[in-house]
Design a protein that fits this description.
The chain has helices spanning 2-26, 59-75, 95-108, 113-122, 129-132, 137-148, 154-162, 167-179, 203-213; strands at residues 38-39, 48-54, 80-86, 187-190, 193-195. The protein has 241 residues and is of the alpha+beta class.
Amino acid sequence: MANKQKNNFNILMQQWLIIYFACQVCAQVPIPNRPLGFPYGSEGQSLIQLDAFIDLTCPFSMVAFPTLKEVADHYGVANLRLNVVLFPPPYHRSAWLATQSTFIVQDMDSAVTFKWMADFFAVQKKFFNDPTRNKSNSEIMSMIADVAGNVVDRSAFLSKLEEDEGDSDARIMWKYSCSRYMSGTPQFLVNGVTLAASSSWTLDDWKSIIDPLLGVDVGSREQHTKETGNYVMPRNYVMPQ
């Protein structure tokens, strides 16, 4: 009798776990009231959308950031739209607060959002795990407010951060990133398709992908050697239809 009860219990637990995980897999990601991301530059329709999933506390994202803006500036908004999506990992202590802060800055003055990102990257090392290990959340918030004070009113910003503004937006953006199978930063989508680009890519590397999509005759180009650590498709590569 005891064994039968134990078996029945095990079966019920297995069934419960199956239902639980099925619900997790099928759970609907919250639908935002506007497309997710922080668009770079002026508004307008673009032929190509480049989604860059980055983390403000990720050193590789910091390396990629200036080049991404260079790419956007090179093509102009009529040809390419750079859309930055923040994806804060749980193992970077300050990442979540930095993401929340970006939404707050955007809400306070959308014209300075990318200046805020650049300013944060400039002092990024202060927010790494080791320097903040013995700091409280309040202390980290104050440090972030010091950076935000370069572009918006520091006091008003800190008040909003302490009131947890931006948290809901950050949660939706994080869940969206997971739904796109993002697992780290930086990662990229070009017109919704995953691109195995590297944070060390230069403007020329990006042109080898973007130019063919725009119908530009890019000529021939040597592939990166194995020593560079990056494989880049040749510039005369034709994307499959």
